[in-house]
């Protein structure tokens, strides 16, 4: 091939499947893969975990979360530990489950932790719409949903990042389509391919990126055509814009990013748990020695972290990248430690 290409995947499911199916070993040495900020739990800043613990322990709410949030360490503890101390933390499988919990517990305040990217934002929007329709005065929403295109802009603006192309997320793109990524070739001169999740999808996405790079005409293409249309999912986009508005938000590793976080807007503002409970969200220092922030920016690989395996494992995670199944550190731990 001659040229050497560094490609970054920015979706946790891609990261896991690249490891699970041993795809790196199938690639020629000229193609190097890096993992980016594609795991929603990993990019949550520590103060958001602290605020969720405050909701449980100080305000005594019933907190509804997806399971991978339980072990993520906050400044002093995790939601799993808060639950062990008697806090009511319930694992839900859909945002609508939290609406049901609120309905079944009219004398308790119930908060849904809204964590994820555009993929799950429409389902969270539906939960707020449903809570409003059912006039649930005890239901609140903790906004931690994040948007992928602003994070990619922030990532690519880092002059130290040397990436030739992006393997773009299939799930997020089913909702937003390909148009929100068009700034990538225009502003940064590199291509992106929206890629599916089967091993052959990922390999095809990589081959497509290499072909575009060799042609020298950077653009956005869709490999995952069976699920993604250029305009995305109009219903999902409408749900998001009806219920939420983008505001500036902090990301672990990437810092403050304008217009990158969704909060309830208009008639849904009354459901915002941050406003209701006066949560401060003051930035707090990340765990000593943890290099998760640099891992999320593709600056170091998990084995470069001195705590990797020696101290930090999925059973004893020191940082969020080791907690979530989609975290890079957890993927390296489970499927191989090689760089
Ligand atoms: Fe942080 Fe653990 Fe990953 Fe090191 S191995 S960067 S401590 S999550």
Give me a quick take on this structure.
The protein is of the alpha/beta class and 339 residues long.
Supply the key terms.
binds iron/sulfur cluster, alpha/beta, six-stranded mixed beta sheet, Rossmann fold, five-stranded parallel beta sheet
Walk me through the topology.
Layout: E1 5-9, H1 12-20, E2 31-35, H2 46-57, E3 62-65, H3 79-84, E4 89-91, H4 95-104, E5 110-116, H5 121-133, E6 139-146, H6 148-156, E7 165-168, H7 170-176, H8 183-188, E8 192-194, H9 199-215, E9 220-222, H10 234-243, E10 244-251, E11 255-264, H11 273-277, H12 292-296, H13 328-335
Parallel strand pairs: 1-2, 1-7, 3-4, 3-5, 5-6, 7-8, 8-9
Antiparallel strand pairs: 6-11, 10-11
Helix pairs in contact: 1-13, 4-5, 5-10
The protein binds iron/sulfur cluster.
Task: Explain this structure.
This protein is of the alpha/beta class and 339 residues long. It folds into two domains: 1-290, Rossmann fold, CATH 3.40.50.11740; 292-333, no CATH class. 35% of the residues lie in helices and 18% in strands. It contains 13 helices and eleven strands. The strands form two sheets. Strands 4-3-5-6-11-10 form a six-stranded mixed sheet, sandwiched between helices. It has a five-stranded parallel sheet with strand order 2-1-7-8-9. α1 (12-20) runs parallel beside α13 and α4 packs parallel to α5 (121-133). The structure holds iron/sulfur cluster. Iron/sulfur cluster (SF4) binds next to α12.
């Amino acid at each position: 091939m001659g040229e050497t290409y560094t490609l970054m995947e920015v979706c946790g499911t891609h990261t896991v499947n690249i490891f699970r199916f041993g795809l790196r070993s199938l690639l020629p040495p000229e193609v190097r893969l890096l993992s980016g900020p594609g795991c929603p739990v990993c990019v949550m800043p520590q103060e958001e975990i602290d605020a969720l613990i405050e909701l449980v322990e100080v305000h005594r709410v019933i907190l509804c979360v997806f399971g991978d949030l339980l072990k993520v360490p906050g400044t002093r503890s995790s939601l799993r530990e808060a639950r062990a101390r008697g806090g009511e933390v319930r694992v839900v499988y859909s945002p609508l489950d939290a609406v049901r919990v609120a309905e079944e517990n009219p004398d308790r305040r119930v908060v849904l932790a809204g964590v994820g990217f555009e993929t799950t934002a429409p389902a969270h929007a539906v939960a707020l719409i449903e809570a409003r329709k059912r006039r649930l005065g005890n239901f609140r929403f903790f906004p931690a949903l994040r948007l992928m295109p602003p994070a990619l802009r922030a990532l690519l603006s880092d002059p130290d990042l040397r990436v030739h192309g992006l393997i773009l997320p299939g799930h997020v793109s089913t909702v937003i389509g390909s148009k929100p990524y068009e700034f990538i070739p225009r502003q940064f001169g590199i291509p992106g391919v929206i890629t599916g999740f089967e091993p052959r999808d990922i390999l095809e996405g990589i081959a497509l990126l290499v072909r575009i790079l060799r042609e020298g005409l950077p653009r956005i293409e869709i490999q995952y055509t069976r699920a993604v249309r250029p305009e995305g999912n109009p219903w999902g986009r409408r749900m998001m814009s009806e219920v939420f508005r983008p505001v500036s938000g902090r990301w672990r590793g990437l810092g403050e990013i304008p217009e990158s976080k969704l909060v309830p807007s208009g008639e849904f503002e009354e459901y915002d748990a941050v406003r209701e409970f006066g949560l401060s969200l003051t930035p707090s220092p990340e765990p000593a020695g943890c290099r998760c922030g640099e891992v999320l920016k593709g600056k170091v690989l998990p084995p470069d972290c001195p705590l990797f395996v020696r101290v930090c494992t999925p059973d004893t995670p020191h940082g969020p990248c080791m907690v979530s199944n989609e975290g890079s550190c957890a993927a390296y731990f489970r499927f191989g430690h090689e760089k």
